[in-house]
Design a protein that fits this description.
Layout (H helix, E strand, L loop, with lengths): L1 H10 L4 E4 L3 H20 L5 H9 L1 E4 L10 E4 L5 H14 L6 E4 L6 H5 L8 E6 L8 E6 L5 H14 L3 E6 L6 H17 L5 H12 L5 H8 L1 H15 L8 H8 L18
Parallel strand pairs: 1-2, 3-4, 4-5, 6-7
Antiparallel strand pairs: 5-6
The protein binds nicotinamide-adenine-dinucleotide.
Length: about 270
C-alpha cells in the first residue's frame, strides 16, 4: 500500500519523503513504485519523461525524523494497533508544522485510538486507500470524534483536486464502510473453500461469472495479503464480536506457512516471482 500511496502523491506533483524500516525494504518499495510506473508507461498512460520526473520527486529514508517538514503524513505500516500508536507518538514529536495532517491508512483500527497517541488529535484523520492505489478511484476519509472540520475539508481537496480520485466520508467505526461489508464476504469464501464446498478456482469463477465481480474473493484476498486481511478481521471481531468477522483456521495456518498471497508468491493461488 505504501508504494501505491507514494506513487499517487508523487503523480499529483507533490515531493514525497518515504520511510521504511530497512535498506532492503527501501529497495523493495523503490522497485514497486518503479515497476508500477513502468506499467503505466507501457500502457501508454505516462511518458517515460513523466515517469522519471515522478520517481525523481520520491526519496526514501529509514529515519522517521526525515518527515519533520512534511505537511501531509500518510502512515501505511503493518496493521498493528500498538505499532501504529507508537509511530504516531513519535511522529507527534517529530513533525514541526502545526498545520500538518497526520493520517493513517489503517483498514480497521479506530482513528481515535491512534489520534489519542498525539497531543494534536484534531489533526489526525483516516485516509483509507484501496489496492492497487494508482488504479482504485476511492479514498475513505474517516473522521474521529476529535478530527477538525478543516482537516476533513483539506483531505477532500487532496483526494479530488490533487489526486483526481473520489471520496466517501465515514464515521470512526472499525472497518468504516467498505471493509465492514467486504471482510465478511471474503471470509465466507474462505469458509466455503475450507469446508471443501468447491475449489478455489470455482468459488472465484462463480462470483466473477455469476455475480459480475471483476475479481473473485480468493484472488482479492491474495491481492490484499492474507496476513493483512486477518489482522483487519481480528480488529473488527474485537470491536463487534460478530462471528462473521472471525478468522477461519485455514487463514491462520496459511500465515504460519508464509502463504500470504501474491506478495509471497502463494496464497489460494500460485504466482510467479514477486
Ligand atoms: N493491503 C490492502 O489491500 C490494504 C488496503 C487498504 C489499507 N491497508 C492498510 O495499509 C496498511 C499497510 O498494509 P499493507 O498491506 O501494505 O501491509 P504490508 O504488511 O504488506 O506492508 C507494511 C509495510 O510497513 C512497513 N513497516 C512496518 N513497520 C514500520 C515502521 N515502524 N515504519 C515504517 N514502515 C514500517 C513494512 O516494512 C512493510 O513494508 C495497513 O494498515 C493496512 O490495513 C491495506
Amino acid at each position: 500500500m505504501g508504494a501505491g500511496i507514494i506513487e499517487v502523491f508523487a503523480r499529483s506533483g507533490r515531493v514525497v519523503q518515504a520511510v521504511e524500516t530497512s535498506e532492503s525494504a527501501i529497495r523493495a518499495g523503490h522497485r514497486r513504485v518503479e515497476s508500477s510506473l513502468g506499467r503505466a508507461v507501457s500502457g501508454g498512460k505516462l511518458s517515460t519523461t513523466e515517469a522519471e520526473s515522478i520517481l525523481d520527486r520520491v526519496s526514501f529514508a529509514t529515519e522517521l525524523e526525515s518527515l519533520a517538514d512534511c505537511e501531509v503524513i500518510v502512515e501505511a505500516a503493518t496493521e498493528d494497533p500498538e505499532l501504529k500508536t507508537d509511530l504516531f507518538t513519535r511522529l507527534d514529536k517529530i513533525v514541526t508544522s502545526e498545520t500538518a495532517i497526520l493520517s493513517t491508512n489503517t483498514s480497521s483500527i479506530p482513528i481515535i485510538q491512534i489520534a489519542r497517541a498525539t497531543v494534536r488529535p484534531e489533526m489526525v484523520v483516516g485516509l483509507h486507500f484501496f489496492s492497487p492505489v494508482p488504479v482504485m478511484p476511492l479514498v475513505e476519509i474517516v473522521r474521529s470524534l476529535m478530527t477538525s472540520d478543516s482537516v476533513v475539508r483539506r483531505c477532500k481537496d487532496l483526494v479530488t483536486v490533487e489526486m483526481n480520485k473520489e471520496f466517501i466520508v465515514a464515521e470512526d467505526r472499525a472497518g468504516f464502510v467498505v471493509n465492514i461489508l467486504l471482510v465478511p464476504y471474503l471470509l465466507s469464501a474462505v469458509r466455503l473453500f475450507e469446508a471443501g464446498h468447491a475449489s478455489a478456482a470455482d468459488i472465484d469463477k462463480g462470483m466473477r461469472l455469476g455475480a459480475g465481480h471483476p475479481v473473485g474473493p480468493l484472488a482479492v484476498l491474495d491481492y490484499i495479503g492474507i496476513d493483512t486481511l486477518a489482522k483487519a478481521a481480528d480488529v473488527l471481531y474485537s470491536e463487534y464480536r460478530d462471528p462473521s468477522f472471525s478468522v477461519p483456521q485455514l487463514l491462520r495456518r496459511m500465515i504460519d506457512a508464509g502463504h500470504t498471497g501474491q506478495k509471497s508468491g502463494r496464497g489460494f493461488f500460485e504466482y510467479g516471482a514477486t
